[in-house]
Amino acid sequence: MELRQLRYFVAVAEELHFGRAAERLDVVQPAVSQQVARLERELGVRLLERTSRRVALTGDGTRLLAEARAALAAADRVRAVAADLAAGRTGTLRMGTSPGLADRLHRGVATLHRTAPDLGLTLVEGSPQAHCAAVRAGELDLALGRGAVRGPGLHAVELWREPLHAVLPADGPTGALPVAALAGMVLRLPERAADPTLHDTVLAACHDAGFTPRLGRPVRSVEATVVEIGAGEGEVTIVYGTPAALTPAVALRPLDPPLDVPGHLVAPATGTPECLAALTAAFC
Predict the structure, then answer these.
(1) Which CATH number do you get for residue 15?
(2) How many domains does the chain have?
(3) What is the gyration radius of the CA atoms in the chain, in angstroms?
(4) Nearest to 147 by CA among 196, 181, 103, 180
(5) What is the rounded distance in angstroms from the CA atom of residue 106 to the CA atom of residue 120?
(6) Model confidence over 272-281: pLDDT tens digits?
(7) 239 and 108 in one domain?
(8) CA–CA gap between residue 30 and residue 19 (Å, rounded)
(9) Domain coverage including residue 239
(10) Are 43 and 137 in the same domain?
């Protein structure tokens, strides 16, 4: 599927006439007909009903029209960002982020500012699912997040692998913590809706080790949970990397076998290769 096909489809859908769409696009009518037909074949759906007297959107065409408009708008915004990055003009980069990525953000933003000193930055925290939806809709220019990225309209580049660690009372076991040892502890995790990547990765490891963990209260704040674990007994939580909220009352232990999750840069699939390369290099 090409961006040109979406532009031709949107023009025909708005004009409901191939001839007027061709005039608007400043191309010949057969080219419009061919590209829209090719788009239908590639998608496997009928987008337009054609008769000798009229052109009308099908139900599938109506649904796709909104997505096509969003994709074209996102492509235009990405081109503008790429132009700002290349020319050093003032602009604002709208970026989705997640907790625990401060160091990577600082490095990436510093790299971008060396290329475009006047580039503004707006950071939006949220879940990976919300960020992917916002990038697809053109509400964000890119996002950094953990976990697998799926869905149409997105381009995901894996930038890093992030290890998972156990946080447990300081007087607990030393050395790497076997995943099987979690069977004898109360495991505290974020709710799945808040962090499906961490939740599913840890529960899958427990399943592979042959047990179903005993879950405690959900983690809503890493800082508060760390304090509670340090003041209690028999509780453990799993965190990304090395959180800044550790206290002397807790210990950070690697897991055995090691667990990690992928970290991705997510951008619109319609973005230019130049813009994607610049952002990937900055936040790698």
Answers:
(1) 1.10.10.10
(2) 2
(3) 24
(4) 196
(5) 14
(6) 777 777 788 8
(7) yes
(8) 9
(9) 90-284
(10) no
The CA distance from 238 to 119, in Å, is 36
Same-domain pairing of 132 and 177:
yes
Domain of 227: which CATH number? Answer: 3.40.190.290
Q: Which two tokens stand for residue 37?
A: 């037909």
pLDDT at 186: 95
pLDDT band for 89, please (50, 70, 90 cuts).
very low
Residue 201: Cβ within 10 Å count: 18
Contact 169, 249 (CB under 8 A): yes
Asked if residue 85 belongs to a domain, the reply is no
Res 75 pLDDT > 80: no
Same domain for 212 and 255? yes
Rounded distance between C-alpha atoms, residue 163 and residue 165, angstroms: 7
**Token pair for residue 53?**
């007297």
Conformational region of residue 147, where left means phi above 0, alpha means psi within -120 to 50, and beta covers everything else: left
Residue 51: alpha-carbon gap to chain centroid: 42
Whole-prediction pTM: 0.62
The sign of the dihedral angle between the CA atoms of 62, 67, 73, 76 is: negative
36 near 69, Cβ under 8 Å? no
Looking at mean pLDDT, say which of 25-29, 91-95, 151-155, 267-271 comes out highest.
25-29
Tokens of 229: 């674990």
CB 247 within 8 A of CB 222: no
**Domain contains 79:** no
Encode pLDDT of 255-272 as tens digits.
999 999 999 999 888 777
Q: Where are the beta strands (DSSP E) in 112-234?
A: 119-125, 142-146, 154-169, 177-178, 186-188, 214-215
CA distances from 126 to 17, 100, 193, 203 (A): 42, 12, 11, 22
Q: Are residues 134 and 50 in the same domain?
A: no
